[in-house]
Amino acid sequence: MALSSQALNVNASLHRPSNSQTHSFDRLKISIPLNLTHPWKIRLPQKPWPEHVHEAMKSTSRKMLDAVVDFMFQFVDQPLLPSQKNFSPVEEIGEATVVACCEGDIPVDFPEGVFVRNGPNPLFGGFKSTKSIFGRSSHTWVEGEGMLHAVYFKKESRGKWLLSYKNRYVESETFKLEKPRNKPSFLPAVEGDSWAIMAAYLLNTLRYGTVNKYISNTSVFEHAGKTYSVAENYVPQEVDITTLEACGNWNLDGNWDQPFCSHPKRAPVSGELVTMGVDVRRPYYVVGIISADGKKLKHKADLKFDRSVLSHEIGVTCRYNVIIDHPLVLDINRLVNGGQLVKYDKEGYARIGVMPRYGDASSVRWYHVESSCTFHLLNCFEDSDEVVVRGCRALASMFPGPDWGMDKFDWFSRGFDFRELVDPHADKRGGYLFTCAYEWRLNMETGEVQESNLTGTEFSMDFPFINADFTGLPNKYGYAQVINSKSSSESGMAKYGGLAKLYFNEPCPSLSDSEGRGQGKNSVKVEYHNFQKGSFCSGSVFVPKKDGAGEDSGWIVTWVHNEETDVSQVHVIDAQKFESEPIAKITLPQRVPYGFHGAFICVPN
């Protein structure tokens, strides 16, 4: 979420999205008939306006609309609690700063490259709400301009490591529009009173040509030697990994006009990049296949969804694309009728689709599964007649949060209180944000589904990752960030106090009822790496050894912040000695806020 899981804004339009939605917007349209047959009507010039006149008219129009917004809307800071301090933004540090290991050493065989992580870093001091005659609207916790944080690992001639740190905003098109104004300008348009959201839709579109900012804050990925920053509501931004400078949009020569998935997958063998885009208007879900060299969109398919779902990730196997359709739904009609734009429907259906790589809507085989929310996938692969899907599954959605008007802090606080799952005497009103590693086995011959909780109810985990060389292939190991229930409940925000290593081919050791605490018959062995008290991580990734002898031959690197000392570090952990202390800790020159997804980009000399 991100939450990322991870991501997640809406790319919408007040133009007619479909016949079924037309009536919802009739009241918003203004029709001014012009009868030019009457002599008192002024005839417009037949020639086009000179360019300077056209630009002057546009400038005047923008200024008038800005004046309307300034008069009618008041921007208000969304306050943070002391326990939420490290969710607040930081400034750009400028030039790269040399850093060093405060404990341990970087291994000799660690690859040269860049450990980079994306995350929200809202402009102008933090998230904003607005007040107006239309009501209130506010930013959700996943919004905020993207900022990249990077540690560079470079070997000097004598084999000595030279480490440096840099951070930088992802300067998207909308960032460049708003930053020079030196004040908030885009109206929040996802969460709030319905009339306030619709007013934001209209005014943002009239002033900037888009409903929401292109935040590009969720993840970072590499394809064909290029690095990209992305969030669900727009196309990726190419990034110069050496400077973190945004180099422009990646829309495949205009052939990809959809939002872009935060977790595209490289297909085994072919090296093609499989992505998808979800939208609030039709087509709701589109799959795309990009060539291995990143130059061509080879295939594009509208899957003909009948609802707009906020799906965060797509899976791949050797032959198939794996589609997640869960009941986190975006609905313009619901918004117009006074409800929320984005809402998790716990009574709604969930299904998983298996689609041939170059298939279309008619070729997808759908498997209905127990209703749930799955933002992140561990991996997918083929096993005889089955397609195996592993992900992090919850019975509620952290995004957008409670219904508008409810106590947001109380809702998140109770959702992260997992005591009732392990204590029969605990309060039964909470724990609904618990996330476990989960497996679906989809039988392609019989159409049957087998579902299993792989990690029980002792620890909640999300933001999973694997050795990326095994994407789409059978794998033995998976990793995830582990939520600290107490700290998350006290702050009303997810905090990850450790890491988990999952051994998929090894069953959980036999434990007594008093010790097992919710381990099911299909639970797998799990090891845990816990951070110091008051320390929490984000953006964790697996870095494989260049000539590794096994799937788990490599390191886990992660961003860790100690809230008691207010110091941020990068930790390097030996994946084969997972429960041991980190083999290296790199202290950073400034605080790094909690963020979403990271990547390690190999950049040899």
TrEMBL record:
<feature type="binding site">
    <location>
        <position position="263"/>
    </location>
    <ligand>
        <name>Fe cation</name>
    </ligand>
</feature>
<comment type="similarity">
    <text>Belongs to the carotenoid oxygenase family.</text>
</comment>
<dbReference type="GO" id="GO:0046872">
    <property type="term" value="F:metal ion binding"/>
</dbReference>
<protein>
    <submittedName>
        <fullName>Uncharacterized protein</fullName>
    </submittedName>
</protein>
<keyword id="KW-0479">Metal-binding</keyword>
<keyword id="KW-0223">Dioxygenase</keyword>
<keyword id="KW-0560">Oxidoreductase</keyword>
<dbReference type="GO" id="GO:0051213">
    <property type="term" value="F:dioxygenase activity"/>
</dbReference>
<keyword id="KW-0408">Iron</keyword>
<feature type="binding site">
    <location>
        <position position="312"/>
    </location>
    <ligand>
        <name>Fe cation</name>
    </ligand>
</feature>
<feature type="binding site">
    <location>
        <position position="376"/>
    </location>
    <ligand>
        <name>Fe cation</name>
    </ligand>
</feature>
<feature type="binding site">
    <location>
        <position position="597"/>
    </location>
    <ligand>
        <name>Fe cation</name>
    </ligand>
</feature>
<dbReference type="Pfam" id="PF03055">
    <property type="entry name" value="RPE65"/>
</dbReference>
<dbReference type="InterPro" id="IPR004294">
    <property type="entry name" value="Carotenoid_Oase"/>
</dbReference>
